[in-house]
Specification:
The chain is an alpha/beta fold. About 55% of the residues lie in helices and about 15% in strands.
Length: about 260
């Protein structure tokens, strides 16, 4: 899909990957970009810059997502592209409080479900649409610093796969963004194992998103080495787990896990 002439909704768009992708969609000739974020002031700044439409949205609430889509449709008439991108990361293992698990679950899994309820059937009825999910390389591999992040990002990948299976032959294209470290507020404040292969700019990630949309393929892998790690994981699961155990111990010893 070419974003030219299309209406796109981007969540988590006040900063980072969401902001860069909103800018890229606008530069690519999108008919409208809805900039959604819990941080309304930040969303408004991005919307003003690109001539888009800002909406405050807490993606951990289904009613907020429904209101976001309604606002987009009221402004532009339809939603052609939905980029379900908002995310959080909180360190911790099995001791992580239940409320943190619940927050991760809602933002990294249910937000995609709720958004799909609001837009996917309409896309299928028109015979065209694009649904993008930000899942992180942690969703394909894992991450040593945060059990709640790794687990719920796996859920994001699984839901994106299901959506592609169920709607891929109805004109709805689905892609799953799985980068390692990206230079955003989330990464620079956390650091950690995601940066072992270097960090990309949000603009580089946005460019890769547009390329994959043009090809209409499932995985968006800005860090190409993630594919090699996936192959290693499936070729010898126990060896891969051993390598991850070493990485976990390394970060535990450094106080980062």
């Amino acid at each position: 899909m070419d974003v030219r002439g299309k209406v796109a909704v981007v969540t988590g768009a006040a900063s980072g990957i969401g902001r860069a992708t909103s800018r890229r969609f606008s530069a690519g000739g999108a008919a409208g970009v809805v900039v959604a974020d819990l941080n309304l002031e930040g969303a408004q700044a991005v919307a003003k810059e690109i001539g888009g439409h800002a909406v405050r949205c807490d993606v951990s609430r289904e009613e907020d997502i429904q209101a976001l889509v309604a606002s987009a449709e009221a402004k532009y008439g339809r939603v052609d592209v939905y980029f379900s991108n908002a995310g959080v990361v909180m360190r911790g293992g099995i001791e992580t409080p239940d409320e943190v698990w619940e927050k991760n679950w809602k933002i990294h899994c249910m937000a995609h479900v709720w958004a799909s309820r609001a837009v996917v059937e309409k896309m299928a009825a028109r015979g065209e649409g694009y649904f993008l999910v930000t899942a992180s390389a942690a969703g394909l591999l894992n991450i040593v610093e945060s059990a709640s992040y790794g687990v719920t990002k796996h859920g994001a990948v699984a839901f994106a796969e299901w959506l592609a299976i169920a709607y891929g032959r109805k004109g709805v294209h689905v892609s799953c963004l799985c980068p390692q470290a990206v230079i955003t507020g989330m990464y620079t404040g956390q650091g950690g194992s995601a940066g072992v292969d270097g960090a990309l700019s949000a603009e580089q990630v946005a460019e890769e998103i547009v390329k994959v949309m043009a090809a209409e393929t499932f995985l968006v892998l800005p860090h190409a080495t993630v594919l090699d790690y996936m192959r290693a994981k499936t070729t010898n699961y126990d060896r891969w787990l051993g390598g991850m155990q070493k990485l976990y111990l390394k970060h535990q010893e450094s106080g980062k896990a």
